[in-house]
Amino acid sequence: MASAGGVAVDARWRAERPLRIVVIHHRREEPRDGSGHLIGDFCALWAADGHDIVHVRGPDRFVPGDVAVVHVDLSVVPRRYLALARQYPAAINAGIGDIRKRRVSEAARLPKPGAVVVKANLNHRGIPEIDRSGRIGSLRRRAARAILRRLAGVTGAYPVYPSLASVPAILRRHPAFVVEPFIPERHGDGFVLRQSYFLGDRDISWLVPAQGPFIHASRDEDDIEIPTPPEIRAARRALGLDYGKIDYVEHEGRPVILDVAKTIGDRGSTPATVARLAPGIAAYAAARGALAPPPAVTDFPCASLPPLEMPKEAPKRPLRPVVR
Predict the structure, then answer these.
(1) Looking at residue 37, what DSSP letter applies?
(2) For the chain, which end, N or C, has fewer CB atoms within 10 Å of the first or last residue's CB respectively?
C-alpha cells in the first residue's frame, strides 16, 4: 500500500485500473516535475500506486491521458491552458481560471468600519506573474510590483492601517491592491487561520495556530484537524475548485474566505493531507467516465440457446455427358 510520509492511503478508493495523469504546467514553470508544490507529493504517491504521470509545459502539446490537472501557477490562467485540459475525459480545475482576491475574497466585500489590511489582488503578491511574464510591463505595473514587494518587506506581512481613510490613495485606487477589514481570528494568546484542502470529492481542514496575525506557513505538528464547514464546501463548488486550498477565519459566527489557491505550496502541509486527498483523483475520473470499461459482451448460457440447425443439403442433379 502506498503511503504519504508514513500515512497509509486507503486502498478501497484506488482506481480499478492505472490512470494516465497529465499535469499541465505553465511553459516557464520550473522545476518541471511539480516539486516545490504539493502536486509533487501527490504525483509521487500516484506513481507509487501504479499510475502513469506525465508533466506537460505549455498549452500546445496534447498528450493522451485519462485525467488532466491544470497546475498553472498564475492568478488568471490563460484560456489556452484551460482549453487544452478540456480535451481530456476528466479535467481538474479546468473550470476555474481566476482566483484574484477581488473575485474570491469574501473579506474584501465586508464593511470596513475599523482597521484595514492592504493585500495584493494577485495571489502570492503577484510574484508568479513577475517570474513568468517574460517581458517588462508598463511603468505603472512595474511601480505597483515594486510597492507590493516593499510592503511585504522581509517578513512578508501585509500593512495594516487604523482606518480606510488612512490608507494611501494609491493603495485604495490601484487595481493591483485590495483593501480588507482587519479581522484576524484570536485563539488564546495567539491567532489561528483555518485551511481547507480539496481534491475531487475529498477534503480535509486544519486549524493552524501562530503567534502573529499573518500565517504564511505552519508547523505540521501544531495543526489541528477540524470539520470542513458546509459553507466552504459550497464555496469551492461554486468556484469550480476541484483541487486547491481555501484560507478563511471565523468572524461573527461564520466562516469568511480570505484567499483561494489552486497550486498549493508544499510548506506547512502534513502527510495526512496528501494521504487523505490522493485517492480523490480516481473517484473524480470515474465520475466523469474516464474509467468507463469497454461495452460489455452479454454471455448467454448454452442451455438457453435454441438448437443449432444446419442448413439442408440441396439435392444433387445427375451429371450429363459432355459432347465434344
Answers:
(1) B
(2) C
